[in-house]
Amino acid sequence: MKVLHEGKVKRVLSDPNSPNHIILEFTDIVTAGDGEKKETIGGKGKLACETSDILFTFLESKGIKTHFDKRFDENQLRCKKVKIFPVEVVCRNVAAGSFCRRYDIERGEIFSPPIVEFFLKDDKLHDPLITRNAAVVMGLVTHEELAFMENVTRSVNYYLCQLFKQVDLSLIDFKLEFGRTDEGQILVADEISGDTMRLWTLTGESIDKDLFREASGDLIEAYATLVEHLKKATPKEIPIKKERIRVIVMPKQGLKNPPGEVTRKALTRLGFESVNDVRVGKVYDIELSHPITSEILEHLRAMNLKLLSNPVAEEAKVGLLVWE
Ligand code: TMP
Ligand code: ASP
Questions:
Q1: H-helix segments, the chain
Q2: What is the pLDDT of residues 167-199, one digit of tens each?
Q3: Does 32 sit in the ligand 2 pocket, CB within 6 Å?
Q4: CATH for 82-220+227-237?
Q5: Nearest to residue 74, comparing CAs of 45, 94, 42?
Q6: Which residue of 118, 151, 242, 280 has the smallest Cβ count within 10 Å?
Q7: Atom from ligand 2 closest to the CA of residue 213
Q8: Predicted model pTM
Q9: Where in the chain is the domain with CATH 3.30.1280.10?
Q10: Which residue's CA is the closest to the ligand 1 atom numbered 8?
Q11: What are phi and psi of 89, to 5 degrees?
Q12: What is the number of other CB atoms lying within 10 angstroms of the CB of residue 244?
């Protein structure tokens, strides 16, 4: 198998049987602080691979689209081939790590709703925090892609929190990466393991890579315990999270909009003399009992043109709402 990409702790190999798949290989290397601290710990790759296998399988069972196809070997996953977006998405339920250092706040503060942040994927720059605006203007992602990633990240957070709660663990924070297939489908990619999450036991002990970052415990023992816990969970009992999509339909620019004109006149009569123009449209809030996927958005975009709007006189925008 040809090596397509060599990361800090994983390798991407070509899949001999399919040009649309890759083999993601987990090594025993553990790094922290952008590779400043680096060790090889026997068995880590297999445990991180197994954790990712369990969690991707779980998320897929709830309708979240990921790059995961199947376990290929002890330390290998077969995944769909995607082009990874150069932004990482971090979701925080509880203050820890770089968030505490950045804002000088107490570790353990609970965030409600959870905080979602974007980071530029660039080791040389130490993966700096990036604003949405900068990421879009720099051409890394579009606003729609960011909204989609945030939405999926919040759904992933809901499902993972529920799963870990069943086995008495709290999900403190985690990082996701997203990729796009040649067909344009956006999928959760990379790995989800103790290397990319913080998890605390009920007594506040870490069961994740912080044990290595802070040299405070046995990583392998913790990762093995995590896998054991996950095997005891009962994913079927976790209810589906409702999602909402907002479709905004506006009269096309340049076309007459009589309701807007009536409102403009009324506002002027009431003394709002600076009102120049008013245009009146429609809003549809659509609730779904399935996580939002690229296909659902595409389907809605195609459908709403026929169903919710008149394409001759109106233009429709499909937006994602984050309603905690
Ligand atoms: P942070 O507090 O260091 O920003 O990390 C937030 C979460 O993201 C934590 O669960 C660890 C994970 N993470 C990665 O998976 N890779 C990274 O490069 C970084 C910086 C964090
Ligand atoms: N993921 C980064 C590294 O592997 C930073 C970290 O997780 O602490 O070096």
A1: 44-61, 97-103, 132-137, 143-166, 210-213, 219-232, 258-269, 294-307
A2: 999 999 999 999 999 999 999 999 999 999 999
A3: yes
A4: 3.30.470.20
A5: 45
A6: 242
A7: 8
A8: 0.95
A9: 243-321
A10: 175
A11: -110, 125
A12: 15
CA distance 32 to 195: 9
CATH 3.30.470.20 residue spans of the chain: 82-220+227-237
With a 6 A CB cut-off, is 175 part of the ligand 1 pocket?
Answer: yes
How far, CA to CA in Å, does 209 sit from each of 79, 110, 134, 198, 200? 24, 20, 30, 7, 11
Q: What is the 65 CA–ligand 1 centroid distance (Å)?
A: 22
CATH code assigned to 243-321: 3.30.1280.10
Burial class (CB within 10 angstroms; exposed 0-12, middle 13-18, buried 19+) of 184: exposed
Inter-helix orientation angle 219-232/44-61, to 10°: 30
Ligand 1 mean position, distance from CA 175 (Å): 6
Q: Which two tokens stand for residue 107?
A: 């570790």
At 65-94, the pLDDT tens digits run: 999 999 999 999 999 999 999 999 999 999
Among protein residues, the one whose CA lies closest to atom 16 of ligand 1: 196
